[in-house]
Design brief:
- By secondary structure, the protein is mainly alpha-helical.
- Helices cover about 70% and strands about 0% of the residues.
- The longest helix is centred in the first third of the chain and has 29 residues.
- The termini are far apart.
């Protein structure tokens, strides 16, 4: 048996173990303890590292599970160190563990279909001068509409419109332009100039504006595709230098996220004082988890379990939010708010600017109860199809579609945290991308 088969066998063993342990915890939540969660954390790190080692490249499967560890398991660790870990929290943790194991099952089963993709059409940039003019106009539009908002949020925190989606159509357009700008700039500098690193002089001010607005979500949504396109974040991990680069980027991500969470970003994780839950703890797992991005997904899952135990399910209303989010609240005063907004307010009196994250099972759990596992399984299959598309794509070629491929990575990363929010942003970016591709490229 060659080394690749050995590592693939190890991966299957880890996935089966996680599924069995998660199922046991789901039906007997009492087994969920801080040691149990610590071992789950280690198992997921091994799963990601093992997959990365034998594939020798980043893929969407790794991104999904890294996000799961970074956002959800980190909170499990913190909550499991409470002096008294309640059965409600134990079941919420077990539900989230089983959800991800079911997702992985879908991904693994899709492997047996021998999915293969051709790279597809090649789109060459032809109207370069016009393309540059459009980028300049986009930069002007973005800074014109965002600099005042950035200064206001720097001094006062996030506006309630961010939570309720009550902004104008223009705000939605500007947000989409802003998130697509760094990938566009990165693409042009990497494939059509000899000085791709000069693009940093343009994109860094854009990142600064987003930092002042204090939305980690959009900062990373901008930064990840840009870093992939210009080569800061290497997709092929075939040398020690690239491994160290990946580790360094993760450390920067952790500390940057921690800074924003502490000083600028208003979220459930800031309002729930986790330090009080594990006061006096010197556990190394707690120290690591606290540097990640626990955003209240476990807490929200616990509240959802409690709420829907006595209230009817939403029957699709939460999932359909993505179809009418764009309608301004000034036109539709009674527009429903998403579960990430209204559920926490059923239990607490909190500020209008506070939003939460229900995680990838959140909306479909509210809509379909435990039938959500079927949908999660299908999501796993879909991720394998997307991974096959990314694997078949040649990122060294100058095809305009490199932007679309790079945008898949932040979408998947944030889908774990909040599917609706991530998908809304992704769809808007794709629509703008398709328009630009139609105007400035030629299919060859």
């Amino acid at each position: 048996m060659n080394s690749i088969k050995i590592f693939k066998t190890i991966e299957i063993a880890l996935e089966v173990m996680l599924l069995l342990v998660s199922a046991i915890a789901f039906f007997s939540p009492i087994v969920v303890t801080k040691d149990f969660v610590a071992w789950i954390f280690i198992a997921y790190l091994l799963l990601i590292a093992n997959n990365l080692y034998y594939n020798r490249r980043l893929n969407l499967f790794q991104v999904w599970n890294a996000s799961y560890v970074y956002v959800i398991i980190s909170e499990m660790i913190l909550i499991s160190h409470r002096d008294v870990l309640t059965l409600d929290y134990q079941f919420a943790i077990a539900f989230l563990l089983l959800s991800n194991s079911v997702f992985i099952c879908g991904y693994v089963i899709a492997k047996f279909s021998n999915i293969t993709w051709n790279e597809g059409a090649f789109y060459r940039l032809v109207n370069k001068k016009s393309f540059i003019i459009v980028i300049i106009l986009f930069i002007y539009l973005y800074f014109y509409y965002k600099y005042q908002n950035a200064l206001f949020n720097f001094e006062n925190g996030r506006a309630v419109s961010n939570a309720l989606g009550s902004g104008s159509v223009m705000r939605i357009v500007v947000n989409s332009v802003g998130m697509l700008l760094p990938p566009l700039i990165g693409y042009y500098s990497a494939y059509h100039t000899k000085h791709k690193w000069m693009s940093l002089l343009v994109v860094i001010p854009i990142f600064i504006i987003q930092l002042l607005i204090s939305t980690r979500f959009r900062v990373l949504y901008m930064a990840l595709p840009y870093m992939i396109i210009v080569g800061i974040l290497p997709l092929k991990i075939n040398s020690l230098k690239r491994v160290l680069t990946l580790i360094l980027l993760f450390i920067i991500l952790s500390f940057g996220s921690s800074f924003l969470k502490k000083y600028r970003y208003t979220s459930l994780a800031e309002d729930v004082d986790f330090s009080a839950l594990y006061s006096g703890s010197t556990d190394s797992f707690v120290s690591i988890a606290d540097k990640m991005s626990p955003e209240g997904v476990v807490h929200m899952t616990m509240l959802a379990n409690d709420y829907f135990a006595v209230h009817p399910l939403s029957h699709g209303k939460e999932s359909l939010y993505i179809t009418y989010f764009w309608v301004p609240r000034s036109i539709w005063n009674d527009k429903p708010t998403p579960i990430d907004y209204w559920l926490i307010r059923e239990y607490d009196t909190i500020g209008e600017s506070v939003t939460t994250a229900s995680g990838f099972p959140g909306e479909i759990r509210a809509d379909f109860g435990y039938y959500c596992f079927i949908i999660i399984f299908l999501w796993g299959i879909c991720l394998k199809y997307l991974d096959s598309i990314v694997l078949s794509f040649n990122f060294k070629r100058e095809s305009f579609n490199v932007i679309l491929m790079a945008m898949l990575f932040p979408w998947i990363f944030f889908f774990v945290r909040s599917p609706n929010t991530a998908t809304i942003s992704f769809v808007l970016e794709v629509l703008l991308f398709v328009v630009l591709r139609k105007l400035f490229t030629k299919k060859v």
